[in-house]
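User: Second chain of the day. Same drill as before.
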Amino acid sequence: MNIFPKEKINKMFARVDEAEMNAAGIANKHLNVRYGAESRQAMDIYLPDGAPAPYPTVVFLHGGGWAAGSRADKQLAPFLHGVERGYAVVSVGYRLTPKVRYPENLFDVRRALRHLAANAETYGVDSSRVAIAGASAGAHLALMAAFTAGVPAFDDEPAAQTCTLRAVVDQFGPTDFLASDAQFAESDYPRDAPTPQGELSGAERMFGASFEASPNLVRFLNPIDNVHPRVPPVLLLHGRFDPVVPYQQSTALAERIRAVTGDASRAELEISPTFLHADPGYAEPQSVARIFAFLDKHLK
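Assistant: Same format as last time:
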């Protein structure tokens, strides 16, 4: 088991942090908008200038193995280009392990979405046209937030007003924790610092137990086990030689979505032959254009 080995968590996004992110140049914004009592329960909202509100909205969740990272990380860079394209871009922070375990981090995402919906007019967002996106661990939470929307067991306030999630962008996120080891073995390429025998991986620490000891409960954590016929369209982006999250996590989820929904277009899959985990290539113009071609199709 080596999804998010603890010694790599703080270095996981060193490559993508090389990307340029000029948030300081965006004049129309609301920073440190609190949706909860704790400091991590806050979001930054970036808005277009000149275009009439309300704006279609992209909510981004940072990666970092559920234990690191912040809403100001440069992994937001590809999505921040949405401001110049007429989107509101919202970067959401959430509480981290070991302070919380799943599903408290997912509940934080729910709370942020409810806060946006309740204050949509104030912030200029269109809560009926929202996409949720994430990188790595953030992609896992984004998928779970979208796939379990309206399911009481996955929400601390299931009856509350919230945003309508019309699309998901998954950047190299884990989707099936029980399959990871077999997928790496099948790929036969170097893995990034496997978790030592007898220790819990970063994902297991977030879960609170060994996956092998609780395989049935892992179904409540796995996006692939929560696909249903009404899941929103998903764009899956992954690197073929990703050493942290095997690329088959994305290919298997795409196949599952297409099978369950009966709609081949519901999952758009792009496997890069060169990108690694948190690769700076995800912030290059061609990658950004791919993301917003997908978002334009579903939000505009």
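The chain is about 25% helix and 20% strand.

User: Great, on to the next one.
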